Amino acid sequence: MTSKPPIDPVAAEKAALRRAALDRRDEIPAEHRAAAAAAIAARPLPVPVTAGTVVSGYMAIRSELDPAPLMRRFVENGTGLALPVVRGRGQPLAFRAWAPGVPLVTAGFGLLEPAPEAPEVVPDVLLVPLACFDRTGHRIGYGAGHYDTTLAALRAERPVVAIGIAFAAQEIARVPANGRDARLDLVLTEAEVIDCR
């Protein structure tokens, strides 16, 4: 007879917080979503950039705050853009160069990503989707650990800035965290810029 693995209390708490946060996010009206994305993009860029800076964004899915207006602002300021590519569970994300208007291909889970022939790049700044966050920079994502693994791998090689993109309603008092959880440097909401460093 095989025994069940022990229940991880942190994982269980995160799952409950994730469900509640995604329910709250789903209730945000479409007009507020568009206004929030515009408000974030209208501010000065949250980090200094140079012509060689590469910013990894993402294509919003479900009820995520759309980072496209902010991504366009980065491009207007001379940065290169990249989008993440999922390589498999437990593996860091790869990043492929991309520019607005270049067609994307559909990958697993309905995610859109650059075509395989797009060159791989290493980002300096990552825009990170999330379910919820706290003011210490901890976040709850979707449970696969892709960004935690990726940030750990990138930060082992060089400094990178991780910026959470969220609606103010996604903030919670405390995210239960463990040693595998990578912290965000900043969180941008429609209401404010939260510096977690």
UniProtKB/TrEMBL annotation:
It comes from the Bacteria. One of its GO terms (molecular function) is 5-formyltetrahydrofolate cyclo-ligase activity. Belongs to the 5-formyltetrahydrofolate cyclo-ligase family. The keyword Metal-binding applies. Its EC number is 6.3.3.2. InterPro entries: FTHF_cligase, FTHF_cligase-like_sf, NagB/RpiA_transferase-like. It catalyses: (6S)-5-formyl-5,6,7,8-tetrahydrofolate + ATP = (6R)-5,10-methenyltetrahydrofolate + ADP + phosphate. The keyword Ligase applies. Keywords: ATP-binding, Ligase, Magnesium, Metal-binding, Nucleotide-binding. This is 5-formyltetrahydrofolate cyclo-ligase. Its cofactor is Mg(2+). It holds the Pfam family 5-FTHF_cyc-lig. It is an enzyme of class 6 (ligase).
